[in-house]
Known about the structure:
- By secondary structure, this protein is an alpha/beta fold.
- 27% of the residues lie in helices and 30% in strands.
- It has seven helices and 14 strands.
Amino acid sequence: MVTVAACQLALSDLDPDANLDAIADRLRGLPDDTRVAVFPEYALTGFVADSRIETAALNRESDRLERLDALAGEHDTAILAGFVEDASDAYHNTTVYVTPEGDRTYYRKRHLWADEADVLAPGDERVVVDSPLGRTGLVTCYDLNFVAESAAFTDDRVDALFVVGAWPAPYAQNWKLLLRARALDGVRWVVGAGRTGRRDVPGARVTDYAGQSRVIRPDGSVQAALNRREDDLVADIDPGDLDAHREFIPVL
């Protein structure tokens, strides 16, 4: 069995240190055998669609990311967490996958949602990592809506998708449906970690977030789920189940 966790957080927008403290606290509360912990979109920095995001954005040499490396090593757990990346020539909605050995892989969100495009630049590459669940595609929130992204990962025969999200609460049903659809598309595991709580920053649109973190089985059924509370969704996954599902649903 592989134990995974989707850690559902209410973030502190524009406060990376507070968010890192919250991540560290959540990691301490996970079972010792947790192999992967998935945190929400923008888990390190939060987000506002104006110049204030520049004060919270992190470059890849940031000591905040070094702290994330240390946490992965301390808990012997791979960590996936999102942040606003300062790439010197542009800002990106970036997710970093950190192994317990301190190796990092970055994914820049390819499909920006609404006012993200006012301050961020889209990425241009799909990213696959070797995770405890096998070959795993990294997906950020609105990317779920694009069937071409799912098809590309299917062509690449990935075994799982890790999804970081900050889905608005009024559209929670869309998030839940798309997680299940993207699992069934390629007959693969999907682990989705959603932001919860409220963004209430002066001068920015107030937004309530859906939460609704999920672990989805390769047949599209829900193995484990949260509603909107701040909590850790911990699930045991048998990687051997994948072969049985793919034999029954031979889309590959």
